Amino acid sequence: MKVNYCSAAEAVKLIKSGDHVYIQGSTSVPEVLCAALAERGSELRDVTLYQAFAVTKGEAPYCRPEFKDSFNVNTFFVANSVRKWIDEGYGSTTPRFLGEVPALFRDGSCPVDVAMINCSLPDENGYVSYGVSGDLAFSAVECAKIVIAQINPHMPYSYGDPVIHISKLAAAVEVDDPLVEVPTAIPTEKEIKIGGYIAELIPDGATLQIGVGGIPNAVVRALSNHKNLGLHTEAMTDGVLPLLEKGIIDNSQKKIYPGQSVASLALGSRQLYDYMDHNKDIVFRDVAWTNDPFIIAQNPKVMSINSCLEIDLTGQICADSIGTKIFSGIGGQHDFVYGSSRSEGGISFLAMLATTNKGLNKIKPVLTPGAGVVTTRFQTHYIVTEYGAVNLRGKSLAERAKLLISVAAPEFREELDRAAAERFGYAYLKLK
């Protein structure tokens, strides 16, 4: 078995000017290779760097003004490591449902010359795993002419799509680089209320898709008395560990991968990574597969639980931007909202606190100018705040406005009531 072990500096010499390079995401960013690539910044020109959702130890080392002509950062999700760079106009983001990004690689719309990944130690047959990040990594590696990998003892070995034989690597760099750990978000009192409202509507035997943050963690905390839950999600987090360990999530009612939890990426603590390691009850798949609404819908009672930044009185959801400023990306929200709508007994929940940290209203007459619509008014189902949960399915615009105002912060309801009356006229007024 021929393995091309070398230093990081030698490995990144395989990258040349004009190349298109994929950098693995989640908490699996190959930071040793990224640092080595940045060291070559003065000698490279017009290298396109693709990335998506990622959590790193700091700002990306290639995001420096002197490298503005060396590296073109093109991200499918604005992560913490590149947010400032993009805000300043040096990099850009390509809008796309995360589940559809692999198609851009596969059809050549976004060509991949080199993939840089972070892998586990090889197993007895010489296979290494991409561990916590199957998402875009699987398709990028499939399409890349050259694959460069960190071989990292801290990376858990996960089963499913993100596995490659070490002989297929053009260069392998041995590193001792602990994965970023994402602290478990402790739900606030208001978030616990939201979690309770959602949990009351989730039946036994449901298949869960759970997002990231305090509200999703509040939901899973409130599911401790449920039975026979399943997991088919984009991101696996620490929040689901108690449900897995207690057998509350047993995947017994799922149609797709019954008996196994399915995810595309993971981010959390070392406890989560250790739980995943060589655990055949967990399968990681290409995000084009996990986020395919028609695959999602084959499971029964799919419960899609996601967050948003603001919502207007018709049910339009903004989840990726603050006005014109792109803050993150849409991830799999749309895919799972649609998939749950096609699932027998499925429900999608879009949850948020009713106000910002500064006390500003997040349920608005109209979205902030420039805000992007991630989930359309045609798809919204349950909207949940600390003031309750309302079902918009089958409701007219006037009825939606009435329901949404009922879960807005009380200090803003009079203002919203006037706006709704002006916009929807007698159809709204007669609902009083």
List keywords for this structure.
432 residues; alpha/beta; Glutaconate Coenzyme A-transferase; 2 domains; seven-stranded parallel sheet; six-stranded mixed sheet
How would you characterize this protein structure?
The structure is a single chain. The protein has 432 residues and is an alpha/beta fold. It folds into 2 domains: 167 residues, 3-Layer(aba) Sandwich (Glutaconate Coenzyme A-transferase), CATH 3.40.1080; 241 residues, 3-Layer(aba) Sandwich (Glutaconate Coenzyme A-transferase), CATH 3.40.1080. 25% of the residues lie in helices and 20% in strands. The protein contains 15 helices and 25 strands. It has a 7-stranded parallel beta sheet with strand order 4-3-2-1-5-7-10, sandwiched between helices. Strands 12-11-17-22-24-25 form a 6-stranded mixed beta sheet, with helices on both faces. Strands 8-16-14 form a 3-stranded parallel beta sheet, with no helix packed on it. Helix 7 links the parallel strand 11 and strand 12. Helix 6 crosses helix 7 and helix 13 runs antiparallel to helix 14. The chain starts with 7 loop residues before the first helix and ends with a helix. The mean pLDDT is 94.
Q: In summary, what is this structure?
A:
By secondary structure, the protein is α/β, with parallel strands linked by helices. Helices cover 25% and strands 20% of the residues. The N and C termini lie far apart (75 Å).
Task: Please tell me the total number of domains.
Answer: 2
Oligomerization state? single chain
Query: By helix and strand content, what is the structural category?
Result: alpha/beta
**Largest β sheet strand count, sense and barrel closure:** 7 strands, parallel
Evaluate the radius of gyration: 22 Å
CATH class of the largest domain: Alpha Beta
How many β-strands, per DSSP? 25
Mean pLDDT: 94
Strand content: 15-25%
